C-alpha cells in the first residue's frame, strides 16, 4: 500500500476526531478499525461533553448537529446524605457542559470522514505495529483475506483499552497504574422523558445511582451493581423499582418507566499507562487511560489527548518543529492525572464500598457534608466537572 503520514489505529471517537482534525490540517491519514461501523455505533457510552470537546468537534467541522440537538446544562444535581443539592456551574465557574451522546459524536465524525474521502479500513484484523523506533514505522494487518502492510511517519494508537497499541510498547518501558473498583454500573437506555432537566448523581445506602439522558425523550439511567451480577436477572421492572427507591422523594412520582432499548453492565476501573509515546507511536484516549465514569471524563480526556496530538503533528508538518511531539506525553499526562484524581474522588464520594470500615464511612459522610456547606469545595467540583483547561 502507498505510505501515508499518519496511520491511526481505531475508529472510536479518539481516532475519528484526530483523523478529521489532521485531514483539515492537510495531513494524510489512514484509519484501521477492527470492527464494523455498526458495531462501533452500537456501543452506548458517554453522554456529557466538556466545552473543550464541543470546541474540538466544531473545529473538526462536525459541530452542526451537536449544536442543534445537544442540550446545554448549566448545573447538575447531587443527592447525598438524603438531601438533593444543585451544583450551579454557571454561578460557580461561569461554564457549562453539553449533553450529546457518544454514539452521535461518533456518527457525526464517521459521516465527515466518509464525506472527506480520507480512507478508513473497517474489519482490519491482526494489526501489528513494526519498527516503532525507526523513522518509517510499518503497520501490518489482515483485510478481506489478504495480508497488507503500510508504512508511515507516525502511528496514533487510538484503539481503546483492549487494543494492540499499548501492548506494542516493550514491557520494560511501559509502567501501568491501576485500581479496579469492587462494583460495576448497570445501565439502561429507554425512550422515556428524563426524570429531571439536569443529571442527578445519587449516593444512597443501597448504592449509587445516576439519572442521565440523551434527549428530551430518551433517558439513560445507571445503578451501582455487584461485579458478579447476571444481567438476565435484571428485568426492566426490577431496574425501575430499584432506581425509584433511590430517587429523591419529589422525583419518585415523576419517573416515567418503559421498556429498555439497551441494558449492559460496565466494570469500573482507574488506569494509566506511561509513557504515552514510544518512538513513533503515540497513545491517545482509552488506549492509555481509563477513568471510572462517575466524573464523565473518559471521552473528554480522549478529546484533550487528541488536541495535544493534533497540535504536535501540525507543528511537525507545517513548521518542521518536533517540539510538540517531544512534549506530547508530558502535556497529555499532566491533564490525565488530574482527571484521574477527580474521577476517583467522585467515585469514592458517591458509591457504597462493600469493605469500608466504620471510620472510613464516617469520613466520607463528613466529606459530603463539607462539600455542600462550602462554596470553595463546590467550586472545585464544578471546575473539574466542566473540564480543566487544555
Ligand atoms: P474506544 O471508544 O474504545 O474506541 C477504540 C476503537 O479501537 C478499535 N480497536 C481496534 N482497531 C484496530 N485494531 C485493533 N487491534 C483494535 N482494538 C480496538 C475498537 O473496536 C474501537 O472502535 O476508545 P476511544 O476512541 O479512546 O474513546 C474513549 C471513550 O469511548 C471512553 O473514554 C468513554 O466512553 C468513557 N465514558 C464516558 N466518557 C465521558 O467523557 N463522559 C461520560 O459521560 C462517559 N460515560 C463512559 C461513560 C464509558 C462507559 N463504559 C461502558 C465504559 C459511561 C460508560 C458506561
Ligand atoms: C451518561 O449519560 O451515560 C453519563 C453521564 C454522566 C456520567 C456518566 C455517564 O458521569
Secondary-structure map:
Blueprint: E1 4-9, H1 13-24, E2 29-32, H2 37-41, E3 48-49, H3 51-59, H4 64-69, E4 71-73, E5 75-80, E6 83-88, H5 89-93, E7 97-99, H6 102-116, E8 120-121, E9 125-130, E10 138-143, E11 146-157, E12 175-190, E13 200-202, E14 209-215, E15 218-225, H7 236-246, H8 249-252, E16 260-274, E17 277-278, E18 281-283, E19 289-290, H9 298-319, H10 323-350, H11 358-373, H12 375-386
Parallel strand pairs: 1-2, 1-11, 2-8, 5-13, 11-18
Antiparallel strand pairs: 3-7, 4-7, 5-6, 9-10, 10-11, 12-15, 12-16, 13-14, 14-15, 16-19, 17-18
Residues 9-15, 32-35, 40, 45-48, 102, 124, 127, 158-160, 162-164, 185, 187, 266, 285-286, 293, 296-300, 302 line the site of 8-demethyl-8-dimethylamino-flavin-adenine-dinucleotide.
Amino acid at each position: 500500500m502507498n505510505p501515508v503520514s499518519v496511520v491511526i489505529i481505531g475508529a472510536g471517537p479518539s481516532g475519528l476526531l484526530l483523523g478529521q482534525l489532521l485531514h483539515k490540517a492537510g495531513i494524510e491519514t489512514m484509519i484501521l478499525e477492527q470492527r464494523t461501523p455498526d458495531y462501533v455505533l452500537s456501543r452506548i457510552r458517554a453522554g456529557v461533553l466538556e466545552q473543550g470537546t464541543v470546541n474540538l468537534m466544531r473545529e473538526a467541522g462536525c459541530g452542526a448537529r451537536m449544536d442543534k440537538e445537544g442540550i446545554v446544562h448549566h448545573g447538575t444535581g447531587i443527592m447525598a446524605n438524603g438531601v438533593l443539592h444543585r451544583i450551579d456551574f454557571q454561578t460557580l465557574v461561569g461554564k457549562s457542559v453539553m449533553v450529546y451522546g457518544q454514539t452521535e459524536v461518533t456518527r457525526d465524525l464517521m459521516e465527515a470522514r466518509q464525506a472527506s474521502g480520507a480512507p478508513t479500513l473497517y474489519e482490519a484484523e491482526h494489526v501489528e505495529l513494526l519498527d516503532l523506533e525507526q523513522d518509517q514505522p510499518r503497520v501490518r494487518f489482515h483485510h478481506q483475506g489478504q495480508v497488507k502492510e503500510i508504512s508511515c511517519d507516525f502511528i496514533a494508537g487510538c484503539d481503546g483499552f483492549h487494543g494492540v497499541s499499548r501492548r506494542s510498547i516493550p514491557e520494560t518501558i511501559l509502567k501501568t497504574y491501576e485500581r479496579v473498583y469492587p462494583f460495576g454500573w448497570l445501565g439502561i437506555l429507554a425512550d422515556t422523558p428524563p426524570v429531571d432537566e439536569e443529571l442527578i448523581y445519587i449516593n444512597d445506602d443501597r448504592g449509587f445511582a445516576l439519572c442521565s439522558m440523551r434527549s428530551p425523550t430518551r433517558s439513560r439511567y445507571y445503578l451501582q451493581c455487584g461485579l458478579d451480577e447476571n444481567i438476565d436477572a435484571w428485568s426492566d421492572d426490577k431496574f425501575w423499582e430499584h432506581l425509584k427507591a433511590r430517587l429523591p422523594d419529589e422525583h419518585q412520582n415523576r419517573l416515567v418507566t418503559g421498556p429498555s432499548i439497551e441494558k449492559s453492565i460496565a466494570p469500573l476501573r482507574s488506569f494509566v499507562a506511561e509513557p504515552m509515546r514510544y518512538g513513533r507511536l503515540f497513545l491517545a484516549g482509552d488506549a492509555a487511560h481509563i477513568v471510572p465514569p462517575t466524573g464523565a471524563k473518559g471521552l473528554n480526556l480522549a478529546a484533550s489527548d487528541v488536541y495535544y496530538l493534533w497540535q504536535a503533528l501540525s507543528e511537525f508538518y507545517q513548521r518542521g518543529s518536533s517540539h510538540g511531539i517531544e512534549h506530547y506525553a508530558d502535556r497529555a499526562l499532566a491533564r490525565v492525572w488530574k482527571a484521574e484524581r477527580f474521577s476517583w474522588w467522585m467515585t469514592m464520594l458517591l458509591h457504597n464500598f462493600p469493605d469500608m470500615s466504620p471510620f472510613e464511612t464516617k469520613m466520607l459522610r463528613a466529606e459530603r457534608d463539607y462539600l455542600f456547606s462550602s462554596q470553595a469545595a463546590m467550586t472545585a467540583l464544578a471546575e473539574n466537572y466542566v473540564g480543566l483547561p487544555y
